[in-house]
Design goal:
Radius of gyration: 53 Å
Number of strands: 24
Strand order of the largest sheet: 12-13-24-15-20-21-22
Distance between the termini: 73 Å
Shape: flat
């Protein structure tokens, strides 16, 4: 609806003072719109603050506010008018504007490296029609055109110096970079884009691996907390049961002592009552005897002389029952043994907890990553095949090390021997499954490792290290590490790897290279076709008679440094 109204009439977007399209439209209290500068100048030249259209007066100069809604409609009108005039569109803040447009800037379609300006499709026409401008180099629009021109020679930078890592012009290339390796910007840009793709893939792979590891750590922490809480609860329950058992045994022992004491007291009370009766009888007998001893009636002495009570064994019975029921030392000795046994058991439990914590710490330090699993499951023993080694290569007796002697030696000629390129193959070939090996590169200034088909050309120099020719290798040249694709991919590494791990998944078509020290993925060839092409007849026979697979072999090239003290390339055990 707004678009229809805008296209119907343009007068509403014209200021009544300057008769031009509004600039910073503001509204007066009466509701009319003016350019902010127009109404301010109008009131400055007048004695009263009056609306130019309705003549409404204001006692003081009103505070003018930008009409945001009207401003947005005005911006839409400007864009619509530009599009209606020439079919172009206004440049948004994120787009490159045309340098020749006045007022509303159209979106630039191209930037000229000669004119150092960006043009919309209207101002771009002279570069297509004027003969003198047709040779100008046009690129996609960019903001910083000055960076594309050499400040020293005022020429367009067309080349990239790989040694200095900078863009240079043709004069710089001729004067200051004549001995440097340089390529065109297009070629370098193509390689950088390819490198960017692989870097993004590597970073994504590393990010996913680290996210998975972080999730594993979080889950382990949660499970560990749950396990500790469960163990704490069960331990507290076990100690509470032990304490309850000890308390029960203590109570039972005390109750037994009290029962025994009560029984002894009851027996003593019975003895005491019997003794009191005997005392009473003895006292009465003593009184009678005193009376008889004072009488002078002899006949009474003969008749009333009482019998003396027999002696009882009360003393002996009472003495036998005053012995202690339990020796305290017996209790102390039993409790000391129980304490010693408990301490020993607790020491064993504490030692077990500490050992479990150390094992957990060591497990945390172990490589719980993809490389660690590969090393554990797919590591193999690789040795070098002397029948394939270039004549200048010197192998160790155990066939685990190789160095370049710098000069060819007299060795038997062999169809499998490299006669020009300084390579050597592994002795073991593979046509199925997965395998992994590691190579130490310490002291190597230039090297290559990887895998190659058994059918790789070993004679002459026409050997391109590319997957198309049956080679999947990683190499270091002039201090730069690269994956030997077609074209090669230069790898931006923070440091040159000292130990490289090579992992191959035959069925999965994968060859991966790892920095063993940092445990990072350096590069991965995916979609590898290890089976080489065979003649039609052989292929037909293979299809009809048997199924054959191409074997692939580990490939090595040490740095070429003369002298017996040069560091060898070593196949190290995983």
């Amino acid at each position: 609806m707004a678009s229809a109204n805008i296209s119907a009439s343009d007068d509403q977007f014209l200021c009544s003072i300057c008769l031009s399209v509004f600039t910073e439209p503001v509204s007066t209290p009466c509701g009319h719109n003016y350019c902010k500068s127009c109404i301010v100048d109008f009131w400055t030249l007048s004695d009263v603050h009056q609306c130019p259209l309705c003549k409404e007066n204001c006692r003081t100069a009103p505070e003018l506010q930008v009409n945001t809604e009207f401003r947005d409609m005005l911006e839409l009108f400007k864009r619509t008018r530009v599009a209606g005039e020439d079919g172009g569109s206004c440049a948004s803040p994120e787009e490159v504007p045309c340098d020749l447009c006045h007022g509303v800037k159209r979106k630039a379609l191209k930037s000229c490296l000669v004119c150092l300006a960006s043009y919309c499709h209207i101002h771009m026409k002279p570069h297509h029609t004027v003969q003198a401008l047709k040779w100008h180099e046009l690129i996609n629009p960019v903001v910083t055109l000055e960076d594309r021109v050499c400040q020293k020679h005022n020429k367009v930078k067309e080349f990239f110096c790989r040694r200095d890592g900078s863009c240079v012009c043709v004069v710089c290339l001729r004067d200051d970079h004549v001995t440097h390796t340089a390529v065109s910007l297009e070629e370098e840009m193509k390689e950088r884009k390819t490198q960017l793709t692989h870097m993004k893939r590597s970073v994504k792979h590393t990010l996913n691996r680290k996210c998975i590891l972080a999730k594993k750590i979080e889950n382990a922490m949660m499970l560990g907390r749950q396990e500790v809480d469960r163990t704490k609860a069960e331990t507290a329950e076990a100690f509470a049961a032990l304490a309850a058992m000890i308390e029960t045994k203590k109570v039972k022992l005390i109750e037994l002592l009290e029962e025994k004491q009560k029984a002894a007291e009851q027996q003593a009370e019975a003895l005491l009552r019997q003794l009191q009766l005997e005392i009473f009888e003895n006292d009465r007998t003593r009184t009678k005897l005193e009376e008889l001893s004072k009488t002078e009636d002899d006949f009474r002495l003969l008749q009333d002389l009482p019998s003396v009570p027999s002696s009882s064994n009360t003393k002996q019975c009472f003495t036998a029952r005053v012995q202690p029921l339990l020796q305290v030392e017996t209790v102390r000795s039993a409790l000391a043994k129980l304490e010693e046994m408990l301490n020993q058991q607790m020491e064993d439990i504490t030692r077990e907890v500490n050992q479990a914590d150390q094992e957990k710490t060591l497990q945390g330090l172990m490589p719980d990553d993809e490389l660690g699993k590969i090393q554990k499951e797919y590591a193999i023993n690789v040795t070098l095949d002397p029948n394939t080694a270039h004549p200048s290569l010197i192998l160790s007796e155990d066939r685990k090390q190789v160095r370049d002697g710098g000069a060819k030696r007299n060795v038997p000629d062999n169809p499998a021997r490299f006669d020009n390129l300084h390579f050597v193959l592994g002795n073991e070939g593979f046509s199925t499954g997965k395998f992994y090996y590691e190579v130490t590169l310490k002291g190597q200034t230039g090297w290559e490792v990887g895998v190659a088909r058994e059918s790789i050309s070993k004679k002459g120099v026409n050997l391109c290290l590319s997957p198309e020719n049956g080679c999947w290798t990683l190499g270091s040249y002039w201090g730069r590490c690269q994956a030997n694709t077609n074209p090669p991919v230069i790898l931006s590494l923070s440091q040159q790897p000292q130990k490289v791990g090579v992992f191959v998944d035959y069925e999965g078509g994968l060859v991966s290279f790892y920095n063993v020290d940092t445990r990072d993925l350096i590069y991965a060839f995916t979609g590898c076709v290890f089976a080489g092409s065979v003649p039609f007849l052989r292929n037909l026979l293979a299809f009809s008679v048997y199924s054959a697979k191409t074997r692939i072999y580990p490939l090595f090239r040490p740095s070429c440094e003369e002298g017996s003290d040069s560091a060898p390339l070593q196949i190290t055990p995983v």
